[in-house]
Specification:
With 291 residues, the chain is an alpha+beta fold. It contains ten helices and eleven strands. Helix content is 44%, strand content 16%. It is globular.
Length: 291
Amino acid sequence: MIDDRELAGSITAASGFHSDIVQRTAVSGGSICASALITLADGRRYFVKTRPPAANCPGMFVAESRALERLRAAAAIRVPAPVAVSDDFLVLEPFAPRAPDASWQVRIGRELAALHAATAGQSPGFECDNYLGTTPQPNATAADWVAFWRDRRLLWQLERFAAAGNAGDPLLALGYALADRLTAIIGEPAEPCVLLHGDLWAGNAAADADGAPVIFDPASYYGRREAELGMMQLFGGFDATCFAAYGEVWPLAPDSARRIAVYRLYHELNHLNLFGRGYYAQCTATLRGLL
């Protein structure tokens, strides 16, 4: 656990106001970072993420802070503001989550489309590499979107799978075959890249006290917006009204389902690499369906 004096010192340096931490309450979070709500003596409260010693992910919180700032700058959907950051912790403004209602699905669909529309026009990639879970995510720009997705996403995951002792696995032959056919599958439509949250599943979205959507824990980069929808469709949590509302603001191009399946595959492969063979059949089925 991070020492409270170090944490309070970082908050003081960022805010210009000194106050000691008087309460720390653990809260539920993701499977990687420990999370807590802290209260200062002057009444201020912050949400804090700390990196467990077992998660060797240098620069994780700095990269996440940059992504949060980029998402906030679009002013399209609520994103918690980073307050202080180090290699070991990230301090964020808090929000009081509540259970999303039916209107939340419509709002997040519309606001996500507005975020994408407001950030359209960048080259694929991001200003720094970051992480998808604990998997390093390379974000160097590429000549075009197909090259970016092939080299920085699909082949990156396949190479990690092979390096883990699976060099002769049949899944790799399917994956390399897909890499050879990517231009025919995702080369169209001719859309600009947009700023993506990058890891938008139900656990990284909530409703605030007013019921408004909030998104957090990003793995951001600039890419095709259908890549966002691929992750959103992987584990549920976003219903048909959400995607319909998105389409009302910015309709998808024809034949989007197959392209979205390609982008969903990246996250399926990442789960295979992080959590093991329980995701193998799902990855194989997606690959075979695409070929």
